[in-house]
């Protein structure tokens, strides 16, 4: 199938790839929670391995935003997390002990999980997914502050929260499928990239109802 010109643009393709991994991983809440944490906070493999239940703060901070504590090589950072990702993490942690790991995977298993949800012709792992999100966010930053560095340094002051809510596609809802216009664009691109045109197959692969997929394809 001929790929449209816009999908030949690197950032457009990265946006689709990240969206694809997020949507298709929804079949497993544990996998989806891991994927969302990487995308939401730029979590590294070390940070995923070290995350325990008590690091997922139950209540929002003084600004009304949710945060998690991520640790690597003995150093910790506080990271904003979007509301839906926080809800999924809380559900995963519900029956865990405070010091129990949230994601009981080895580094190799994490990379294998991401490979499962990678789009056709691509093979993502934890690090390459992080790099893709960083490229998207740095493109959104224009010539303003380096918000990505602020995220990686664990800074939660200043304009970072506003930037995330305005430009991070998880915080703004653009990498979910709640909005019909956003969902329709993704479903059509998914059909184009994968070569799958059957609404029932698309519905099965994306975890949506066939009726909604038919509606979105006609949107």
Distance between the termini: 21 Å
The unreliable regions are none
Question: What is the fold-level CATH name, i.e. the topology of the largest domain?
Answer: Topoisomerase I, Chain A, domain 3
Instruction: Please work out how many helical segments DSSP would assign.
Output: 11
Structural class: mainly alpha
Overall CATH class of the largest domain:
Alpha Beta
**Overall 3D shape:** globular
CA-based gyration radius: 17 Å
- Main sheet? 2 strands, antiparallel
| CATH architectural name of the largest domain | Alpha-Beta Complex
Please tally the β strands and state the result: 2
Describe how the helices and strands are arranged.
Layout: H1 10-24, H2 29-41, H3 45-50, E1 67-72, E2 75-80, H4 83-93, H5 107-117, H6 126-141, H7 147-152, H8 160-167, H9 180-194, H10 199-206, H11 210-217
Antiparallel strand pairs: 1-2
Helix pairs in contact: 1-2, 1-6, 2-4, 9-11, 10-11
